[in-house]
Design brief:
- This protein has 230 residues and is an alpha+beta fold.
- It has seven helices and four strands, in the order ββαββαααααα.
- A four-stranded antiparallel beta sheet has the order 2-1-3-4, with helices on one face.
- A hairpin with a 4-residue loop joins strand 3 and strand 4.
- It is globular.
- About 2% of the residues have low confidence.
């Protein structure tokens, strides 16, 4: 199997550098990583398990999302979250580079990890992971998320299924994702302390900063489509 690789390389003042490469299945875009022989205790599925988690600890002893995040976050204890960085993101098609605070770099990487980790509640984001856009603005994410979902509805309709063009299920999935955010926050607070959890990663970025009802924000970009509506 030819895996797909995406890499974040974070350069910090003083010559410190951190690199993290994700290895993804080219068919499912799920991370392919072996579980460590001794995974961190805080990654146990039952430790602050999400109320809406469908997984069983007998089958999945570790939370896949927490396990993915642990590979990154354990490198950044007691580090200033607002440290300036030059972050390079290498993807199969291109490389992107940005000068951003450490928090923003880690949040972008964490969002990608969450989407591809194998967590059932974040799996719907994998098409966005396939066309990953680091450091996306709110409007860019709004456009990408709704476009992704409506394209999925086109495929469903072509196969004879019922298409959800009103995006009711997308709203529901983002509400479920907020539950995941809240539970993951509690996990990280227990490990890194409240200030560390809240500053090291802006957890709202796991849900890509989208509102509770994504449809309410579409008016912001409505005028961009006037040429297509005529």
């Amino acid at each position: 199997m030819d895996f797909v690789y995406l890499q974040y390389r974070i350069l910090m003042p003083g010559g410190r550098e951190f690199s993290h490469k994700l290895r993804l299945d080219p068919s499912t875009y799920e991370m392919v990583e072996a579980t460590p022989a001794e995974p961190p205790a805080w990654t146990a599925l039952k430790n602050h398990q999400c109320p809406n988690c469908p997984l069983s600890s007998e089958i999945k002893p570790q939370c896949p999302a927490a396990l993915g995040l642990a590979r990154v976050l354990d490198h950044f204890t007691n580090v200033d979250a607002f440290l300036p960085t030059q972050t390079e993101v290498s993807m199969p098609e291109r490389m992107m580079m940005a000068k951003v605070p450490l928090q923003k770099a880690l949040s972008s990487l964490a969002g990608l990890i969450m989407a591809t980790s194998g967590c059932p509640r974040t799996a719907f984001l994998r098409p966005m992971a396939r066309f990953h856009l680091p450091f996306a603005t709110d409007d860019e994410t709004l456009y990408r998320a709704t476009s992704m979902y409506l394209l999925a509805q086109y495929f469903i309709a072509k196969q004879g299924g019922h298409a959800d063009y009103a995006m009711d299920e997308l709203v529901n999935r983002y509400r479920e994702l907020q539950t995941v955010n809240d539970a993951m926050t509690e996990r990280l607070k227990a490990v890194y302390g409240k200030p560390g959890a809240q500053t090291l990663i802006n957890l709202d970025l796991f849900s890509h900063n989208l509102p509770y009802d994504i449809r309410s924000e579409l008016s912001r970009i409505r005028k961009l489509f006037n040429s297509l509506a005529s």
